[in-house]
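Supplementary Text 2. Reproducibility record for the structural model of the 188-residue chain.

All settings were left at their defaults, and a single model was retained for analysis rather than an ensemble. We include the record here because the model underlies the residue-level annotations in Supplementary Table 4.
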Amino acid sequence: MKKAVIALASALCLIAAAIGALFVWEHQSKLSLEAQVEDFLDACGTDATAVDVHGRPYILYAMADSADLTYVDLRLQAGTNKDQLLVHRLSQGHADRLSRFVTFDHPDGDVDPIERADGSFTEAAMINGSTVTFSADTAGDRLQLFADGHRAGQIELDQDVTVKGAAVTDSGVVVELEYASPGCDAAG
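Retained model, structure tokens:
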């Protein structure tokens, strides 16, 4: 009986050690992927304030030397409250696609976003009792936000982007951008 207890205790210790090693490996893999993304951002001169790598298990992505999706918080510019770059499928220093979501502050007044029947946000909001429609466009090196055709905000851009759309949310007016090139010159 004593030998069985010792064997069981030994087996449990080995299993616990293996599980612990797996957790450490998973954490190290995440750190490795974050370092890969940070190297890409540094090479691009991107001013990131936070990096959040998605895609589990990290071990498999790290073994493939590929970060599936990474959310990168960028330095805020005047008039914005969130600026996030999404790096899609970064592998060996090259991204498949870069997209960006810039959230402009709400205009002054009582803002109530207008939602679709499915609960998704639209490009319009009720502001002080009137319907206001938002749009965005690029002009040279600037992204401009418009409210009923009047400029409501702008930020500087470092590269060629396409505006995919605008939506008024509870946190602000979100503009989706798609970079023309997923290379380093695009991520600034």
